[in-house]
Specification:
By secondary structure, the chain is an alpha/beta fold. Among the domains are: 180-212 and 913-947; 230-283 and 829-908, no CATH class; 332-371 and 703-748; 458-636, no CATH class. Helix content is 69%, strand content 7%. The strands form 4 sheets. The chain has a 6-stranded antiparallel sheet with strand order 2-1-4-5-6-7. A 5-stranded parallel sheet has the order 8-14-15-3-16, sandwiched between helices. Helix 9 packs antiparallel against helix 28 (868-910) and helix 13 (379-386) crosses helix 24 (704-748).
């Protein structure tokens, strides 16, 4: 993802500015308090939201006004264009509220309904704000935050990033530890095994204290039966009592509503009797609104007609009062032409005075220029010299050739010195090497004696041949050892295998191993550990959501499979005929003797020591010692061969370099002679040019730019002088033409006598008067048009009034009323009837809510037959009976509960056999939990060992990439970064395998290390969507050389993601400009001033800044 452009409406010290960031690498360079850090925080706020006022620095309230927020224009990796806007008030650019305060648009301007979570998932690759701050928007503070990570967190993230889905390995170990703690703690009480042990102790104590209580138990059983009988009778009686009490209570409560309903029915009948036709139904509810709308329309039509008639009268009166001078208007075009000439004439007078002064200044400038070029140069000579500007290109080529020739001579001298120094250095290296070891020592007896050869010289002196012979001998010896260590099973093991089938093969393998060689070969244990580790990682990858128990089951299955495999292997060896292992061992010995003969000139001595002490009983100590001596001898001899070849190659390289330097020196000498001849030719050509234009011969081609500048200056001055003289002549002619035209006009339209002496003032007075007369004429025409357009409006107003009156008359007639007053009275009565009807229906609904038809009928009967006092007495009587039955039921329930507890207690005390069963069950469960505890502990140990092997032998992708970046930044001073999973440290390794803790590095080197790890982690965290890197002054502690190397790393990173660097140090910006010519260097102070100049009314910059 690339940030193409950002727009700041208001954020911190920034306001109303737009910045383009099209380049892959952009350096924002500016002084302190220029707003660079504010710009970085603005980008973070646009991507992840403007913080609340609890964090005022990150929120960035505008210091100089403006709307708090802005927008970004982005280019996704798939080429799609996106634009986002975000403001502190939670609205987008349109001002309306947006989901999550963010407004997203595509390249066509269509709004996308994305929330903040969808924006992070779709556009930011799922990278959270915290991860973005740690890896992508980095200042010196965030860079050093890597120190706060400890031990397993660094190891698990960095190493498991290269495990292809095994990032949960540390989590599995934590879960295993959690499961172990849940099972048992030495002095705990909460874990399950601890609770089982306590329960077993309590059960054993209860068994010892048990006793019989039979009589008490029988009495409790009889009391329980009596309580159950009483409860059954009450359960059958209570529902009927409750129903009666509720019915009476409902009738008493509904009596007020019933009385209100009767009153409403009577009022409705009285209102209907006030109408001419009491049986007529009420008019619709819309009738009143329709009648008011008809009256409003009629009144509006009448008012409109009155306004139209008044407006027509005013227009005709105003038109009759207008008069104008037609003769003056006939000469309006001539007056306009003279008015235009008048303003130009006044300007010409001022221009003529200015041109006269300018002409005198030009004459003085030309005299000065002639004196600078050559004292006594005439004006014609100057005119000839200024034409030299047409020869600019040939002269430029002459100057460039002159400069190239001089630089070539200087370069030749420099190159000659360099070649001579290189020749001296090469000869010094050759002399120093000659004083050391002879490269042909390998072929002499003296060279061979440098190394101990306990078994004589080797057959081959070629490195590849010797290495191949040694590898073949080592393979055959390993096969022979395996043949010797394997043997046939005993008779007892064969019987056990026949009885137990496939399960006994594991036991037979163990017995055979103990009887033969003391266990499986060493490679079997390593293979078993590898199988267990792979099984555990596979379990984690296949089901990251499964429990730790599932992972442990995978480990158990892998252990069982490994045991079965190696037991079957031992069984196969034992199932063969007793003579087979001996024959196979003899074959492997013969092969080993052949390989030894290919390795040594005289293999007899070595064969006696190596082979004779190797039997089925084991490998002798002398054989092992001899084998180690032979291995060391081979390794020493291979090292000698390699060093000898390297020294020969160095000698050949020195000779080749001396030959190349000699040839280069001869070619340089010839080129120097040609450059000197070219310089003489250019000097002669230059002197000829000076003589042609009469210039001093002391000038050199270095003065050419100044001479051309004076020629251009003289040419421009001469041209301006000629044009000034021509302009003065034209001004005088225009002044005369204006006077003649004004005099001719005054004869027809004379001005006031006081203005006749000044033609300019007279023309201005006549022109203003013609404009006034024209405005009067135009106003009269406008009024005529207005009157003509107002007449149709007046007719429309009359027609609208007639239509409105007809509509009101028709409505009254349809209702059957005699006039409008009677119709309005009926509307008021019908409205009251509707209100009473609605209230009556509401009362009936409240009375009958939740009751079926039978209940409603019973309610009506009670209300009609009984008054309020009778209903109140019926309610009290029914409720007292119901409450008495409830009290009896509660007492029986309480008694039954106490009897049940007593019976349960007696049963528990009498059932000692149940306690024994519980005790046996608890002990069985404790045994299973103890077995699971052992499996979990073993699995954790295997994981720890496997992880240690992985960290030792395999470096993940993230660390490899970080190591490569760090090596380039430090110019190869460090070759590798390691992060052990069991220590809270980061270590670096030099090319000669020396390991140093990062705490002992200098601050600059530490920051280079953390920066390299940030780069690698950023690549791992955003592979699908490469987010831009925002780096805020991270290079302040880098020296000049390592800064250049870091710039080269930035160039590689910029090929895949955008990089924006903020700095206040000029040397950092210069280093990026030199190392990355394609990078854009943005002068931030100038950028802000340009942005302010484009915004009207922008105030001063102030002093507030977040930098």
């Amino acid at each position: 993802m690339y940030i193409r452009e950002l727009r700041v409406d208001g954020y911190g010290p920034l306001r109303d500015m737009s910045v383009s960031l099209e380049a892959a690498v952009t350096v924002v360079y500016g002084p302190n308090e220029a707003g660079k850090s504010s710009l970085l925080r603005f980008i973070r706020a646009m991507l992840y939201g403007i913080p609340t006022r609890k964090d005022p620095v990150e929120r960035g309230e505008p210091v100089f006004g403006g709307r708090h927020g802005g927008g970004l224009s982005l280019l996704a990796r798939d080429g799609r264009e996106l634009a986002i806007e975000r403001y502190a008030d939670g609205s987008g650019g349109s001002g309306r509220k947006s989901a999550g305060g963010i407004l997203v648009r595509d390249g066509n301007g269509l709004e996308l309904p994305w929330t903040q979570q969808e924006w992070e998932r779709r556009a930011l690759g799922g990278v959270s704000e915290r991860l973005f701050r740690q890896l992508f928007a980095v200042s010196l503070d965030e860079l050093h935050e890597l120190l706060t990570l400890q031990g397993d967190e660094i190891g698990s993230f960095l190493y498991h990033a290269g495990l292809a889905g095994g990032a949960s390995l540390a989590e599995v170990r934590r879960r295993l530890a959690s499961e172990v703690d849940k099972l048992y703690r030495p002095k705990g009480t909460v874990p399950e095994m601890n609770r089982l042990l306590a329960s077993i102790k309590e059960t054993e104590a209860a068994i010892r204290q048990g006793r019989s209580q039979v009589a008490q138990y029988r009495e409790a059983v009889e009391s329980m039966e009596q309580a159950n009988a009483g409860l059954s009778a009450l359960e059958a009686e209570l529902p009927e009592l409750a129903r009666k009490a509720a019915g009476y209570r409902g009738a008493l409560d509904a009596r007020e509503l019933w009385l209100r309903r009767q009153v409403l029915l009577e009022e409705e009948r009285e209102l209907a009797l006030r109408l001419p036709d009491p049986s007529a139904p009420p008019l619709s509810e819309e009738a009143t609104a329709e009648w008011r709308e008809l009256l409003r329309r009629r009144d509006a039509a009448a008012e409109r007609l009155a306004k139209a008639e008044a407006s027509m009268r005013e227009l005709r009166k105003e038109r009759a009062s207008l008069r104008w001078d037609a003769d003056l208007l006939d000469r309006a075009l001539e007056l306009e032409r003279l008015e235009a000439m008048r303003e130009a004439t006044a300007a010409r007078l001022e221009e003529r005075d200015s041109l006269s002064s300018e002409l005198r200044m030009l004459e003085d400038a030309l005299d000065t220029l002639r004196q600078r070029l050559s004292p006594g140069m005439p004006l014609d000579g100057l005119r000839a010299f200024v034409r030299v500007t047409a020869e600019r290109e040939p002269l430029r080529r002459l100057q460039l050739a002159w400069g190239d020739a001089n630089r070539t001579m200087e370069r030749m001298e420099t190159e000659a010195g360099r070649i001579e120094r290189q020749r001296i250095a090469v000869r010094a290296e050759m002399d120093a090497a000659t004083a050391g070891r002879n490269p042909t020592a390998l072929r002499s007896d003296e060279g061979a004696s440098e190394y101990d050869l306990p078994f004589g010289p080797f057959r081959s002196r070629n490195r590849e041949t010797l290495q191949h012979a040694w590898n073949a001998l080592e393979d055959e010896m390993r096969r022979w050892d395996r043949a010797l260590l394997s043997g046939a099973p005993t008779q007892e093991e064969i019987l056990v295998s026949r009885k137990r089938g496939t399960r006994a093969s594991g036991g037979g393998g163990r017995a055979g191993g103990s009887a033969g060689t003391g266990g499986l070969p060493r490679y079997a244990a390593s293979a078993a550990s590898g199988i267990v580790a792979l099984a555990l990682v596979f379990a984690v990858v296949q089901g990251s959501e499964s429990s730790t128990v599932a992972a442990v089951e995978w480990v158990g299955a892998a252990l069982f499979a490994a045991a079965a495999f190696f037991t079957a292997l031992a069984g196969k060896r034992g199932a063969a005929s007793p003579s087979y292992p001996a024959e196979q061992a003899g074959e492997y010995r013969r092969r080993a003797e052949q390989r030894l003969a290919e390795l040594l000139v005289d293999p007899g001595k070595a064969a006696g020591v190596l082979f004779d002490s190797r039997t089925e009983a084991g490998i002798g100590e002398s054989s092992e010692r001899a084998w180690m001596q032979l291995r060391q001898s081979v390794q020493n001899w291979l090292a000698l061969i390699e060093r000898t070849d390297r020294e020969s190659a160095r000698q050949e390289e020195w000779r080749r370099r001396l030959s190349e330097l000699d040839r280069e020196f001869e070619a340089l000498h010839a080129e120097t002679r040609r450059a000197a001849a070219r310089l003489d030719e250019l000097q002669a050509e230059w002197m000829e040019w000076l003589r042609r234009y009469g210039l001093p011969l002391s000038l050199s081609p270095d003065d050419l730019q100044e001479l051309l500048g004076m020629a251009e200056q003289g040419q421009a001055s001469l041209l301006r002088r000629d044009r000034t003289e021509e302009r003065l002549t034209a001004l005088d002619e225009a002044q005369a033409a204006f006077r003649e035209a004004a005099v001719a006009l005054f004869e027809v339209c004379p001005p006031p006598a006081s203005m006749e002496a000044d033609p300019v003032l007279s023309v201005s007075w006549l022109y203003r008067r013609s404009l006034e007369e024209r405005s009067v004429r135009d106003e009269a025409a406008r009024l005529d048009r207005t009157i003509a357009s107002a007449e149709p409006e007046l007719a429309d107003a009359r027609a609208a009034l007639l239509v409105a009156e007809a509509a009101t008359t028709s409505t009254v007639a349809r209702s059957g009323a005699a006039d409008e007053e009677e119709y309005e009275r009926r509307l008021r009565i019908d409205e009251s009837r509707r209100v009473l009807s609605r209230e009556r229906r509401e009362v009936e609904l409240r009375m009958e809510a939740g009751k079926d038809p039978a209940a409603v009928s019973e309610l009506q009967r009670l209300l009609v037959e009984h008054d309020e006092a009778a209903l109140a007495w019926m309610v009290r009587d029914a409720e007292e009976k119901w409450k008495a039955a409830e009290a009896s039921r509660t007492e029986l329930l309480d008694r039954r509960g106490r009897l049940a507890q007593e019976l349960e207690r007696l049963r528990e005390e009498a059932e000692s056999e149940d306690r024994l069963a519980k005790l046996a069950e608890a002990e069985g469960k404790l045994e299973r939990l103890a077995e699971r505890y052992a499996v979990l502990t073993l699995a954790d140990r295997l994981l720890q060992d496997t992880k240690a092997v992985f960290e030792e032998e395999r470096q993940p992708e993230v660390l490899r990439l970080a190591s490569r970046y760090f090596s380039r930044m430090t110019e190869g001073a460090y070759a590798r970064i390691t992060v052990p999973g069991d220590t809270p440290a980061i270590r670096v390794e030099t090319p000669d395998r020396r390991v140093t803790d990062s705490a002992f590095l200098s601050r600059g080197t530490q920051e280079q290390l953390y920066l390299a790890m940030r780069f690698a982690l950023a690549g791992a965290a955003s592979r699908e969507v490469p987010l831009p890197l925002l780096l805020d002054d991270l290079f302040v502690h880098f020296d000049e050389r390592r800064l250049r190397q870091t710039v080269s790393v930035l160039e590689e990173i910029a090929s895949d993601r955008q990089v924006i660097l903020f700095t206040c140090h000029r040397h950092v910006a210069d280093a990026v400009r030199q190392g990355l010519p394609s990078a854009r260097i943005m002068e931030w102070g100038a950028q802000r001033e340009d942005s302010r100049s484009r915004v009207p009314g922008h105030g001063p910059s102030g002093t507030a800044s977040p930098d």
